[in-house]
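Example A, followed by Example B.
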Amino acid sequence: MDVFDTVVVGAGVAGVTVANLLGRAGQRVIVVEARDRVGGRIWTDRSAGFCVDLGASWIHGVDGNPLTDLVEAFGIDTMEFTVGAFQPDGRPIANYDPSFSLLDPVAAQRWADDIHIVDEQLQRVIASSSADQSYADVAAQALAARNWDTERVQRVWEFYRRRTEEQCGAHISDVAAHALDEDVIFGDEVVFPGGYDQLVLALARGLDIRLNHVVKSVVWSESGARIDTETTSFEARNVVITVPLGVLKAGAIEFVPELPDEVAGPIERIGMGVFVKVFLQFPQRFWQDDIYAIRQQGPAGDTWNSWYDVSASCGQSMLLTFSGGPRGREVEAMSDEQVIDSVLDSLKRIYGESVPDPVNHWVTRWGADPYSLGSYSHVAHGATHDDHDGMATPVGGVLHLAGEATWSTDPATVNGALLSGHRAAERILGEPIDLTTLQAVRS
């Protein structure tokens, strides 16, 4: 049986980051990955001759973000695309009312201003909220403070509901009042014309990564751990588990002995959302020029309410739409043909029968993926931000958890995953590590 200083389970950003840093420090490290590729929930499809990011797409805020320096050091091209955090305005957005009429600029700004007004009240309500309140509770309370008619209130409520579906992959009543506290973007957002996987591939270069190794159990004690896969076992002084939260919640990996309550409790309380991405490549453009997004208000937008024009980043006539939370789970159960028909029906209500059939499409199903079982984490109703960090509490001086779900200030982000891997490496080595050491590409 092979013996290592550290075994890392999972070759996503958190996994390759911790392995990279430990390897640079002289440790003998191995990464075991269930998939036949590295990247985890970063997955770039190049089968059509251009890049389609089926997992992570954005750097959400480039200012002060450790990813910014990394992509620059690795020479990875990015493109500004600043509506990925579901802003109501700030970039050209085509907003359609419930009767499928385009809002004129004045009406669109009035609606965005309503959101900004309620947002200020919402922050005060959240600050004074009790632990048992959901985001739905505080949003309703903030809206109740406005003396507005039902229609006006409904438009803002829809925005909040859809924001939680996109940001958390969950229904507004299933997330905590404080769930979006960290939803603050500093600077522009950017996407990757050449694929997000360039980042993880650069970080993984030179590492010992064993693909197609599904970990079934981790047997640990204060003297070390044994990691059992379906085909072999590895022994190590330390083990870092970076699999997605959904896999941990499902009990797909057995821990012997069981994880202590200080780690198991957060795993149970934190939510794992579902967020479906649908890319449609069209033979030609039929929507407006010079817009970033199309948004549909009212009941017609329950499943498909936002379309992002990603044509510039891939060089094709391409729209990206999303469905999250309960609606996303329903979409995952549909066939590709049913999904595409549903999206086209929605677009035709706006643009008429002139909408052409797509020449290509991509539909993601992270909730059904056995090595993910969800898209990304969120502070579920009944959880707190502290649960994210609590999940990463070292166990027995041997066992460490990392990944986006373990980083409280930026969960559900690639930079959160990167920083969690950095923290795990520092804890194992017992000393600080300069994160900029990652910028030197390994051979």
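Example B, a separate protein, is given below in the same form.
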Amino acid sequence: MSPQAVLHDWPLATSDELDIAADALRGRTVAVLTGAGVSTDSGIPDYRGDGAPPRNPMTFQQFLADAEYRKRYWAGSHLGWRRFDGARPNQGHRALAGLEASGIVNGIITQNVDGLHLRAGSQRVVDLHGTMDRVRCLTCGQTFARADIAARMAEANPWLDEPESIELRPDGDVEVTQLADFVVPTCTVCGGILKPEVVFFGEFVPTEKFAEARALVQGAGALLIAGSSLVVNSGIRLLDQASKKRLPIVIINRGMTKGDPRATVKIDAGASETLTELAARLDG
């Protein structure tokens, strides 16, 4: 096989494309890196995919510095939480869980905060950017279940109704205009600022999380990247590690990624159906 087999247009991968990708991975322990494109078939939109709306995400610095920003964040996050929490794993999540159960995949590194890999049955999941189902106090460090915080917000803000037409964002929030009377949750232990355990724009991935992810790639014989355009630095750093080790790299994503020039195989296709077909070849 040539150093890079550029596999062409989506939406569906061909049998030949899948065979080439399977050949690149077969007989090796595979580390997996996933992005938002893996969860689109679960009803969670992509950040940068085709048709994704323009975004002006709140930064960590804004969240910390301004109570109005925190009010805007928590109001939108509260309205989006029910839809976000109600998402269910799709075929792609289940295919990866099956490959881990078979011993082919050594773990999942995900840039997603939706928890769907764990719900699908994956056991070793490194959530690089955190998870929406936990909330932490930035003052005392106390953690809370997101469901409990949601119940508190609903009680404190009974007037805040979910709009008829809701545009859920990839990180589980929605745009809200009714903010004047919104009551922001605070820590019940010390009264401090609460924040979901997710990495905001402007924050760094925790050192220990990245070390876990790096260890998975270090212990693998190949890297499979699915549903990520590799714009975020943490993904590129893991790709760099795999490249330095000269591992086969298979990328599945709708559209171009920053890693395409270094891919052994690139498939322009949807993650769910491609992962399902690829898993059938590897686990057969």
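On Example B: The first strand starts at residue 5 and ends at 6.
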